[in-house]
From TrEMBL:
GO terms for biological process: fucose metabolic process; glycoside catabolic process; lipid metabolic process. The record marks C291 as: May be important for catalysis. PROSITE patterns: ALPHA_L_FUCOSIDASE (PS00385). It comes from Dicentrarchus labrax. This is Alpha-L-fucosidase. The lineage of its organism: Eukaryota, Metazoa, Chordata, Craniata, Vertebrata.
Length: 460
């Protein structure tokens, strides 16, 4: 088999314990059905956080090649995509297996405190780390992934545990990405062959590992994925979530997404991811999150990436502002190298975002969508609101003076300031008696992010 299995001396009993736990709590607040689970209020911290960092890291980081490099094994073995086939033929001997990459996943330069410092400097409030991708390799010592985890092979370290400690020391929330399925796990393939009428993989692998992650690391967020081949009834998703919300040690704070089975996207779960890079055309009526990678061609690290394929800082800020103004959270992805280094270009982008948020974060964190989300004058403007204050985030410095906003309705108490100079009120005048204001903008140096925020007090 291509994927090492657990040793025969591990009895099935260890897999039954979590399942027994799922059946506990007869007076539970949330029942194991979507009507009940979807009614659970989203913990407040998530909507207030707004910005997160996504981290894709695993054995796939060793070849680090091709579009969507985190799918390298699948492209090479199942799809036989020409790029990956040729890459392997040119660079590796005949008979080389994907699992042979694992010993080279050394992570020798992985410094969790250095990572956490960069994430904190980015202005993010939470981090979502890959505990296990579709390849099945776990970044923690899972009992169900014998010899296919980061302690038994490769780094010989509990990568999840080390990063969890580091990010929490910096008051960041911990999220764990977890793929429900694994491409080539024998038990999953057997269930798949049965048309998902059997649940051997779920009972012996998926649910025990999910419960293990919760009990061992107490994540604030579970980012589920790899669900699309089978319905939620196969994954026992509602049973797991009922336990998570009722009886788990994180029941009051944990947040989940919507990837819990075929047909669940944008319909069931805590908040909605919908499709990758989801961008709604109008204000959604449910909390959502956009995941977006700095490398526009991959989530995992690519050794062959080009600068032209990466988002620059103005593009990141423009994307983030759209998401926040539309009520979403922004989850920005990086793929570290196999040795544990974060590419300097990724670090530069994250620190640039943090510098911008250091000035303009008041317009982002804990904000809400305003009655109007955007307007186009000489530049694009996105609005957010907090308490009785409105923020106008302008993308690009206005070429004409004075700068005109047509949407806000002014009053005798209206005050306008630029977040760069919060103690210096700007001169303004009404456009009409009912709406709009003309603002005299100060002389400003070039901004690396090409975006500025106006604070509008006393407007509606």
């Amino acid at each position: 088999m291509p994927l090492p299995m657990q040793p025969s001396y591990i009895t099935p009993l260890i897999y039954l314990i979590p399942l027994l736990m799922l059946g506990s709590g007869c007076t539970a607040r949330y029942a194991a059905n979507w009507t009940s689970l979807d009614a659970r209020p989203l913990p407040k911290w998530f909507d207030e956080a707004k910005i997160g960092i996504f981290v894709h890291w695993g054995v796939f980081s060793v070849p680090g090649f091709g579009q969507y490099s985190e799918w390298f094994w699948y492209w090479w073995q199942s799809q036989k995509r020409p790029e990956e086939v040729e890459f392997m033929q040119k660079n590796y001997p005949p008979g080389f297996k994907y699992t042979d990459f694992a010993p080279d996943f050394h992570a020798e330069f992985f410094d969790p405190d250095s990572w956490a410092e960069i994430f904190k400097a980015s202005g993010a409030r939470y981090v979502v780390f890959t505990s296990k991708h579709h390849e099945g390799f776990t970044n923690w010592p899972s009992a169900g992934s014998w010899n296919w985890n980061s302690v038994d092979v490769g780094p010989h370290r509990d990568l999840v545990g080390e990063l969890a400690t580091a990010v929490r020391k910096r008051s960041l929330r911990l999220g764990l990405y977890h793929s429900l399925y694994e491409w080539y796990h024998p038990l999953f393939l057997l269930d798949q062959a049965s048309g998902f009428k059997t649940q051997n993989f779920v009972a012996r692998k998926t649910l025990p590992e999910l419960v293990n992650l919760v009990m061992a690391y107490k994540p604030d967020l579970i980012w589920s994925d790899g669900d699309w081949d089978a319905p939620d009834t196969y994954w026992n998703s509602t049973q797991f979530l009922a336990w998570l919300y009722n009886d788990s040690p994180v029941k009051d704070v944990v947040v989940t997404n919507d990837r819990w089975g075929k047909g669940c996207y944008c319909k069931h779960g805590g908040y909605y991811n919908c499709a990758d890079r989801y961008m709604p055309g109008e204000l959604p009526d449910h909390k959502w999150e956009k995941c977006q990678s700095i490398d526009t061609r991959s989530w995992g690290y690519r050794r062959d990436m080009k600068l032209s394929e990466l988002m620059d800082l103005p593009s990141i800020i423009k994307d983030m502002v759209y998401v926040v103004a539309m009520g979403g959270n922004y989850l920005l992805n990086i793929g570290p190298m196999a040795d544990g280094m974060i590419a300097p270009v990724f670090e530069e982008r994250l620190r640039g975002l943090g510098a911008w948020l250091g000035i303009n974060g008041e317009a982002v964190y804990a904000s809400k969508p305003w009655r109007v989300q955007t307007e186009n004058s000489t530049v694009t403007v996105w609005y957010t609101a907090k308490n009785n204050t409105v923020y106008a985030i302008i993308l690009g410095w206005p070429a004409k003076q004075p700068f005109q906003l047509t949407t806000p309705r002014t009053s005798g108490a209206t005050k306008v300031t630029l977040m760069d100079y919060p103690d210096v009120p700007l001169k303004w005048a009404p456009v009409t008696q009912t709406a709009g204001l003309m603002i005299v903008m100060p002389t400003m140096p070039v901004s690396p992010g090409n975006a500025w925020s106006l604070k509008l007090e006393g407007v509606v």
